[in-house]
């Protein structure tokens, strides 16, 4: 049985900055599942620039496809636009709830640590890191409360991005193909675990 795997969220979910489609999170994660005997078809509903408030429209389109597995990567644009953490978390929780009600296993990758982005001034990094942590934690609580798995890439993979400029693309904000390899590697375990559950529910 081929799993329908839907990806929602922002430019990171979309793969902006990758050199080729094969390097995007969607294709990397799909390939990883295939290698682990989890055949799947992946579709990307994510939109570059999306905030948490944009998830309802994406989810509406995605649910029409009836996915059994969903990944949401969201939070960076909420941070840059200073959206209150609890507001963004409520919007994420609603998206997870709708996907779960539609029969999908859901994995959430909450806000990244934007303090490692090269254009953030050194004197602002502690403040940006603290804001990133507040949103990350609020999203994590909200997602788990609705039954999603949380893949903690946002804060745990930040160290690599902080010391390796090659993980960023030319715009110095979005990941490069090498950066997406790091992100997909951090996501793969949670996505595979959710895929196994999703497959078992198909009988």
UniProtKB/TrEMBL annotation:
Supply one GO molecular-function term: phosphatidylcholine lysophospholipase activity
SGNH hydrolase-type esterase domain spans which residues? 7-182
Q: What is this protein called?
A: Lysophospholipase L1-like esterase
